[in-house]
Amino acid sequence: MFTASKPTGSSPRDGVTWEEVARLAHFVPDIPPGIEPGLDERVFYDPKGLAFPFGTYIAVVDVDPATGDITIDRFLAVDDCGPLINPMLARGQVHGGIAQGLGQALLEGARYDDAGCLVSGNWTTYAFPRAQHLPRLETAHTVTPSPFTPLGIKGIGEAGAIATPPAIVNAVLDALAPLGVTHLDMPLHPEQVLAAIRQATTDSRPLGGTP
Amino acid sequence: MTPAGLDYLQPTSISEALEMVSLHEDATFLAGGHALLPDSILPQSHRRHTRPSTLIDLGRIAELRGIEVLEDAGSPHGGDSGGAGRLVRIGAMTTTAEIEYSPDIARTVPLLSKAATAISDPLIRNRATLGGSLAEADPHGDWPPVVLATDATMQLRSRDSERAVPAGDFFTRDGTGPGTGPTTLRPGELLTAVTVPPVDARTRSTSLQRMHPASGHAMLGVAVAVTVDADQACRDCRIAITGAGAVATRAVGAEAQLVGSRLTPAAIEGAAHAANDGIEFIGDAFGSAAYLADLVPIYVNRALSQLATPSTRR
Q1: Domain residue spans in chain B?
Q2: 8 Å CB contact of A124 and B215
Q3: Which residue in A66, A67, A107 is closest to B213 by CB distance?
Q4: For residues A91, A95, A101 and A105, what is the CA-based torsion angle, rounded to 10 degrees?
Q5: Interval B218-234: pLDDT, tens
Q6: A70, A108, A111, A124: which to substitute to probe chain B, counting the most B Cβ within 10 Å?
Q7: What is the three-state SS of B235-265?
Q8: CATH architecture under which domain B7-57 falls
Q9: Chain-wide mean pLDDT for chain B?
Q10: CATH of span A54-202
Q11: What ipTM does the predicted assembly reach?
Q12: pTM of the predicted model as reported, rounded to 2 decimal places
């Protein structure tokens, strides 16, 4: 055992320092023939099974029927990534992922003109989520340790980005269901939402009473 | 990324700045720099046809900054302020944040405070200037509709002349000013200050901004000011719109509908219905011209409806 870089034993036979090991690995004056300098070790970790994080995301939205604007009233994210080693970092991962997912659902998209030129090539023409686009996020965790990892831990990095788009789009579709809207393509720009509302209300009889 | 070669000058007085601009061809005044610097420096910028060869930085001219309430303004103001004599003078280099936090502005022209609060973010508001925004006259600028609705007057000076231009004449479709939108600014002319008549107790005003999701500019903005007479009928009203066309404009059709009426839902609906008159809509990927034409009456309606409620008076 080593404490800092000093061997714990009193005699040289008890150990050598890390510095000595590093030095000897590269600068051995009388290296035996056929031996390459350097020190390598490679270990493969073979888990008994894959760890599956899971969670539930809920978006509560309002849709303005006059403008197609979407307002997120509440956004809740409950994730299970096993025991939280660093709760603040885990929350940061969730927040960042939700922002990315919201961008995909509501704002972002590369666009090309008829000549094939990118027309969303800078930050004034490509809308990525800013702080002002994000609602207050309500996050929580359940803790179900994985039986397959040493600490019971599971992934968290992509949870927000994966779960947020369907949560938002499904909430909008739920809001518009009484009007007969059954499908919207991301990103849900207000103009497209308004067009879908008008299409549905002129094409078919509203299912849930008058809009 | 290397900027194109530029001369950079720092005058310390208005007269020095005007002298400099008369001596340098292709010189441009630099205010907060939020439009001009990216356009001048970034090679891929295509908003401006020509890049200035000389930047005249107005940042060291103290007389271009600050807010004053002139109790007895003798000089001609133009506009229809009723001649009460009081006038608020805002130096062209006054920042949006200074307007936002000025108690004098909050007391005399509250619409300016309200509009300032909604512009972009605090970092931009700390740098961006009122005069810079107005001279730039961006079609999606936040300030142009506000000066239209508050009946402001632009104070312009060149080396040899001086003139006061009402906001409504400053933003003109046939203007050839140096900004991205058309203004009446002439070569060598500097916007030195904006003067605004203080509101009285019978004036109510508000503004609504819809921020562009990518650029942060006003995708659409509506500023309204309504003055009522003793029996609550609209005596005078100004409804101004930005983001819809080539330059900010007053919705004169909507204003005419409202004058003489109380702010009833029916009168507001009638005014909103006429709000698109005369606007040639220009859209983009986040809002087509047709969509903007859908939005303008809704925004005018919602702004006027706020004024119909006594709690939001002024």
Answers
A1: 7-57, 62-196, 203-309
A2: yes
A3: A107
A4: 140
A5: 999 999 999 999 888 99
A6: A124
A7: EEEEEEEECCCCCCEECHHHHHHHCCCECCH
A8: 2-Layer Sandwich (3.30)
A9: 90
A10: 3.30.365.10
A11: 0.85
A12: 0.85
